[in-house]
Amino acid sequence: MRQVCHYHPAERQREKERSRAFDAFQLDHGYVSQGELRARNGFFSSLEVLSSSVICQERFD
Description:
Blueprint: H1 9-28, H2 34-45
């Protein structure tokens, strides 16, 4: 599994914008219903972000 050791807020913001645009495109064109979209994205909206943490272990070879 790929590990990411640097968090780039601007890059993450662009990823989120692309994801939202893709969701809107699919919804507008009837590829997905609001219920399906809600179910697909529901897992992430239920995460408790305040008590979450990111752990990165660098690997030395």
